[in-house]
Amino acid sequence: MLVLSCSMKLQMLEKMLRWSFPESLKVYGAVMNINRGNPFRKEVVVDSWPDFKAVITRRQRENETDDLDHYTNAHAVFYKELQAYQELLENTNAINWGQIFQIQGLQDGICEISRTVALSKQVDVKTSSFQMVIHSDPDTLPDVRLQMDPKLTLASLDISHANLLSKTWSRGGNPRCQKYLANLIYCFPSVCVLDDNGHPLSWSLADQFATMIHGYTLPEHRRKGYGRLVATTLSKKLHSCGFPAQGNVLETNIPSITLLKSMNAQFLPCSFFRVIHTPFHFLDKSHL
User: Fold this and answer.
1) For the chain, what is the largest distance between any 2 Cα atoms, rounded to a whole number of angstroms?
2) Which of 262, 261, 181, 263 is nearest to 214 (CA)?
3) In this structure, which of 5, 100, 163, 228 has its CB flanked by the most CB atoms within 10 Å?
4) Per-residue pLDDT tens over the stretch 229-247
5) How many helices (H) and strands (E) does the chain have?
6) Shortest CA distance to 33 belongs to which of 189, 171, 162?
7) Residue 41 near residue 59 (C-beta atoms within 8 A)
8) For 189-236, how does the pLDDT look when each residue is reduced to its tens digit (9 = 90+)?
9) 236 to 106, 109, 165, 221, 229: CA distances (angstroms)
10) 141: phi then psi, degrees, rounded to nearest 5
């Protein structure tokens, strides 16, 4: 196991990961952020170098401050050989199994290996899967010149909006989520429509894996084109910074799928998997 701390090696890794799209997209987004100032204090672990067979991005160990915060304690993974990934996951120097954490990736073996390894670590596992989408070509994004009410403004989110975002996110509604979203707003691109009092009506933002998340419009402001405007603007903003404009959506979320199709999004053949790992002794923390 190696921690890649050399900037030259990290730049090499970023280029190497492009050869394995789309399965490497989550790790690629995290590595891009590391190579561009590392605002979320991440680091990269590989089984070997340069001929790596498995790679994990994780929070820098010295910046792990809350063992109950699975939002921030998030890892992206990509493997070329499943056995190498399992061995890396089992290594306590690579993964802190004493905390609640999540793993994200685009390969089927991720869930299977998490269940196998977690059993021996006395850790509970919860998995979820989504359709993965990407806007690979900014020129195919629709023209979204919208005749908005002049009282409305297209802007970036502010950390003061984090409470509203947490309350309206399916994964939110708790202080850890609010703090996490505030950190994302501070570190990464976002777009929102503000009313004349500066309150968000519609929004989306990027996370530490350069993934567009939490696209949401308040119910009373839907069917006005705001969601499409926000999503297209954020996609173009990410492309202008050199990032892939990627996202994920539940297969049952028909309104979001319809919106993505109207934006000429490409639905990838691989699914996005999120696996949340909770040590047994934390399972009684009902407030999580």
Assistant:
1) 59
2) 181
3) 100
4) 999 999 999 999 999 899 9
5) 8, 12
6) 189
7) yes
8) 999 999 999 999 999 999 999 999 999 999 999 988 899 899 999 999
9) 23, 32, 22, 23, 11
10) -70, 145
